[in-house]
Amino acid sequence: MRLQNKVIIVTGSCTGIGKAIAERCVAEGAQVIIHGLEKELGEEVVERLGSCNATLHIEDLTSPGASQRLVNLALEVFGRLDAIVNNAAWVISSNIHTTDEAFLRRVLEINTIAPFALIKAALPHLSQVRGCVLNIGSVNAYSGEPNLMAYSVSKGALMTLTRNLGDTLHRENGVRVNQINPGWVLTENEAQRKHEQGLPEDWYTEIPSVFAPAGRILWPSEMAAAAVYWLADESGPISGQVVDLEQHPFIGRNPPKDTSTIPNSVREESK
């Protein structure tokens, strides 16, 4: 039980990677705050985990005071707070032609500013227990797909936040801050997006090798397994680190000799 007696807030945990992380945390002995916007799905997660292990909070993280309310809930229900996982994000297609200033600000508010606000709200309590923060980024942080511009920018900013706070908060407060950057993960939302783009129900069973040398993309449970290390005491004093969880080098990888057979809907949002 690598997370025995720890209390962890996992944002965006009604579905996908966040849900998998919350489930794995409970399996490792933790109690969790489930958060998201999908009330029915969140209730299903809590029911599965048990009310003694999980509590649900439904709210837009950009609402004034939302971060403090999440922190307060953890303290009221479980009596302490050991870690936060900033997983909630808006994955939305855009490029320079379809992005205006208001849209870019909204993406940054959800994907970058909300995680910052939750870290700030949680810091007094994390400092008491020498707790930790795990930010969930994306390999798109390095430059991103052409049609994921605003999302990629927000994840690049989150990565810089992790590096910055991973140094300062560790020295000043004893709080570790690290990040994992998932590659292409088969979440419920990703499966639905690709189906809506016209791909067949089983599109993920035949992914071009340039995107999935292993023959498949990643599972949410594999992201959760990696998250546990950074949330557990076994990661020791390590802070300010960003780890890419992908099956090939994202920067500098060899391009395919012929991309004509790769559907645009696969190429455009491959992460």
From TrEMBL:
- Region span, Disordered: 249-271
InterPro entries membership: NAD(P)-bd_dom_sf, Sc_DH/Rdtase_CS, SDR_fam
Give the matching Gene3D superfamilies. Answer: NAD(P)-binding Rossmann-like Domain
Residue ranges annotated as transmembrane are none
* Protein family according to the UniProt entry: Belongs to the short-chain dehydrogenases/reductases (SDR) family.
UniProt name for this protein: Short-chain dehydrogenase
- Signal peptide from the UniProt entry: none
